[in-house]
Amino acid sequence: MKKTLLALSIALISTSNILACESVDQKINEYRVGLASQIDVAKAVDCNLNKELSKKSMCNTKIGLKQDLYDYAKRSYEYGMTTQEELFQAKEELNLVKEICN
Asked: What is the full DSSP assignment across the chain?
């Protein structure tokens, strides 16, 4: 019984850490010293906006972030730095945000 509870606790902690967003402040500080890219900062902002706000709030900001992430994925794909699946996922996320906001 104790082993089952321990395994369940570990699984829940692991899952909550996976779903947690990175700190925007931390990402900005990492960017300042060259440990993160502008895209990393944008992803942290996007995640926190989605986690903290309702689906319809700040639509222009959310669409702009998703557009930037899609444009980055597109450029990366052209240079062979990302997969077609990642490009497709970025496009789908952009379309989903646009659909929710309209």
From this structure: -HHHHHHHHHHHHHHHHHHPPPPHHHHHHHHHTTSS-HHHHHHHHHHHHHHHS-TTTTHHHHHHHHHHHHHHHHHHHHTTSS-HHHHHHHHHHHHHHHHHH-
